[in-house]
Amino acid sequence: MSGRLVSVDTPILSEIMQALKDNTEVMKRTLRILIRSENRENRELKLPSDKVYKRIAFEQVTYDHFLSETNSFLGSIPGNVASYIQNNPISEKTTEKEVQKWFKDVTTCLSSGQIVFRETNNTPYLNGYKPDFSIFNINDIPNDSYTVIAVQTILELKKHKRTIGFSDEEKGQLMDYLHILIEQQLLRRLFAVFLSDGIFLYVMAFDRNTNRHQECQTDFLTGIRLIHTLIYQNSGYTKICESTIIDFTKQISSTRTTMVKIRLKEFLGKGSSARVYKIDWECEPAAIKMSSNNLGYEANILKELSVHNFTNVPIILANNNNNLVIKPVCEYFNNNLNNFQAQHYMDLLNLLKRIHSFRVFHRDIRPSNIMLDTENNLLVLVDWGSAVHNPSDAPILYEGTTTYASPSILDNNFGNYIPKPSDDLHSFVRTVYIMRNPLKKPHLASSSAQAIKDYWNNELDGRALWKEMTNAAENNQVDLLEKICDIFET
Asked: Where is ATP annotated to bind (predicted)?
């Protein structure tokens, strides 16, 4: 479907909007019906894992493909592993529980030095998933504290029941694991995860540079030799490529600093020049923003805002030149209208109204900067690096995400301008539109101001409700926007 509201003539809806301005409850209920219709039209269904697998074009490779990355050859496995496999063969009569124990014995023999195999089938560390076995560097898992960004690779087990390998559903499950690793380990190029039933071993891989998937199936003994070779040849297919610990210079007085080590626990998000991770700070959950740019300016803005006790703004705990430690730990709304509730619209709008009263302009309102404090069901607006406080009347350099820029900024072709509340309010309307209509997220061939204007004119001008919101933003009519947001339901 098109994602438009149900068919209502523009003049009629304009009358409804006029009644809304007069705060007529009957008309507000009428608009709620229209909003619910829009919700139904824009929900995105999650495909089953087997269908996700079948949609991907896999390159069929042999095990040599993975060895070529380190110019290695297929090595032998330790003698005790070979003896165990020979003396304890897997058959179709072997139960799933026996397969799990069998693999535990095999992987225990394979663990050596710093590389360890851990049975994780009761530990939902992988975004809620519990892979059967996970391979780590022992230094990355103090007290067996498993994290996605620390796992080197994964081995999933299945009871042997097919003479030709594995089903699409089983491979789809492995695909879920692989995609989580790809999302969480941003600097890693190569990935490989494994699936076995003790007879066959299947490899699913991904190369970030080429954006291509590969797959390979071989007999179990060859597969175990491959895993062993890749791990102990330090292959990129089975190795994380960034440290999970960073050094942080902490200010302990006006003249003294100390160096503390921070363990990264989970990747939360990224921007053009920064990444955000979940950490523990003084025994409490927190997030750290790590940037190649100096974050001192953003830290100062957050400190200024903290004086006024804003509830929808990150609280700064510590900072140095390239790092910000903040709370609460937040998550993306993930285009889920069940998470993005009517109250969140009001929270964001009221936050903008309040910061504007202090002559603060965020200048980068967009969906990826709208986060959810899940513990308190609270919207949090992040990324204050483009914000300005009490700007002069002289034009300043434009900063922000061009796709969500206001009409006046687009008309000025992103040139120098004087920030004003309507700029943030226009970005608010455009952000809310995409949050409510995730399938409409702009993917433009051109980043020109004209292309962006054409997109928003096409999306908003023909929809009376959104046209009214655009007009309210242009005229800085926050009260009207509040009334409209009050009727949004999920």
From this structure: 289
Higher pLDDT, 462 or 218: 218
Encode pLDDT of 320-374 as tens digits: 989 999 999 998 886 555 677 888 989 999 999 999 999 999 999 999 999 999 8
In a domain, 31, yes or no: no
Summarize pLDDT for 82-109 with one digit per residue, the tens: 888 888 887 777 777 888 888 888 888 8
Q: What is the CATH number of the domain that holds 253?
A: 3.30.200.20
Q: Are residues 264 and 223 in the same domain?
A: no
Q: Tell me which residue range forms the domain holding 288.
A: 246-327
pLDDT digit string (tens) for 380-412?
999 999 999 988 888 999 999 999 999 999 999
Same domain, 145 and 157: yes
Whether residues 61 and 207 share a domain: the answer is yes
State CA 78 to chain mean position distance.
Answer: 40
Average pLDDT over every residue of 14-25: 52
How do residues 406-454 score in pLDDT, each as one tens digit? 999 999 999 999 999 999 999 999 999 998 888 888 989 889 999 999 9
**Euclidean distance between CA atoms 183 and 406, whole angstroms:** 31
The secondary structure of the chain, three-state, reads CCCCCCCCCHHHHHHHHHHHHCCCHHHHHHHHHHHHHHHHHCCCCCCCHHHHHHHCCEEECCCHHHHHHHCCCCCCCCHHHHHHHHHCCCCCCCCHHHHHHHHHHHHHHHCECCEEEEECCCCCCECCECCCEEEEEHHHCHHHCCCHHHCCEEEEECCCCCCCCCCHHHHHHHHHHHHHHHHHCCCCCEEEEEEECCCEEEEEEEECCCCEEEEEEEEHHHHHHHHHHHHHCCCHHHCCCCCCEEEEEEECCCCCEEEEEEECCEEEEECCCEEEEEEEECCEEEEEEEECCCCHHHHHHHHHHHCCCCCCCCEEEEEECCEEEEECCCEECCCCCCCCCHHHHHHHHHHHHHHHHCCEECCCCCHHHEEEECCCCEEEECCCCCCEECCCCCCECCCCCHHHCCHHHHHCCCCCECCCHHHHHHHHHHHHHHHHCHHHCCCCCCCCHHHHHHHHHHHHCCCHHHHHHHHHHHCCCHHHHHHHHHCCCC
The pLDDT of residue 10 is above 80: no
Please indicate, yes or no, if residue 15 is contained in any of the structural domains.
Answer: no
CA distance 145 to 125: 9
- On whether 104 is known to bind a ligand per the annotation, the reply is no
Q: What is the mean pLDDT of the chain?
A: 87
Model pLDDT for residues 272-301, shown as the tens digit of each residue: 789 999 999 999 999 999 998 999 999 999
- Full-model pTM: 0.80
